[in-house]
Design a protein that fits this description.
elongated; 6 helices; single chain; 2 strands; two-stranded antiparallel sheet
Length: about 150
């Protein structure tokens, strides 16, 4: 989804060329390293921006990394995970009572983000997280990929 944000990272074309010249395994390692570094500030900001009702939505925000090493590309998906488990989620559900017993944030996060026709106002917590951290994320990604390549990992 485009949000009309433009980021210019010096040396990105050179970095992409260098990645394309590395072997497949090293390329994937460098890409994953960069994407993890890029995701950290966005995930943190999305969690900070997420509205608090029970806290389960905030707890569920996670990252997933997808790579296409043959093209030296990848993507980070940031949003609610399909299943929220663990001690923290159990405590949140217990505190919220029966209404949160079977609640899965992945089933309603889009309604919190974009709002509904009747009553639920759009919060745009994910969009705001993206817009405020995209520049820092790109720089983090480039630095991590260069560090991996320089360390002999690619």
């Amino acid at each position: 989804m485009g949000y009309g944000v433009e980021v210019n990272v010096v040396g990105f074309d050179e970095l992409h060329r260098k990645l394309a010249q590395t072997d497949r395994k090293a390329r994937k390692r460098a890409i994953v390293s960069g994407l993890r570094a890029a995701a950290k500030p966005m995930r943190a900001e999305a969690r900070n921006n997420a509205p608090r009702d029970t806290g389960l939505l905030r707890q569920s925000i996670d990252t997933k990394i997808v790579t296409r090493t043959e093209h030296a590309t990848g993507a980070v998906i940031i949003g609610p995970s399909k299943s929220v488990a663990g001690k923290m989620a159990d405590r949140i559900r217990a505190k919220a009572g029966p209404r949160a017993a079977n609640r899965q944030p992945a089933n309603y996060a889009h309604l919190v983000e974009g709002g509904t026709v009747k009553g639920v106002r759009a919060t745009r917590f994910l969009e705001r997280a993206f817009k405020t951290t995209v520049g820092r994320s790109y720089r983090n990604m480039a630095a991590a990929v260069w560090a991996t390549i320089s360390a002999g990992g690619a």
